Amino acid sequence: MELIDAVLGRTEGLTLVDRIHITTIAYIFAAAVVGVCSRLIYEVGKEKLALRFDRHICFSMFAISFAVINVILIMEAVKVG
To answer: Model-level pTM?
Structure first.
């Protein structure tokens, strides 16, 4: 984010790039939490459930919602100008 500020210049408020960076950081944190939960489920002895939860449910949900949120942010930025 600091590199982008250096290239684009300092602005008041959040830019589109800032919002995308914040979204990405939030998703990285959420993925870490999901990874820990999946590991705990695996260690309890429910390997298939952990794999399904991690790869099928969360991966799909994260990929689709991340794309949708970024499209919304970009459309909002285009609307504002």
So the answer is: 0.74
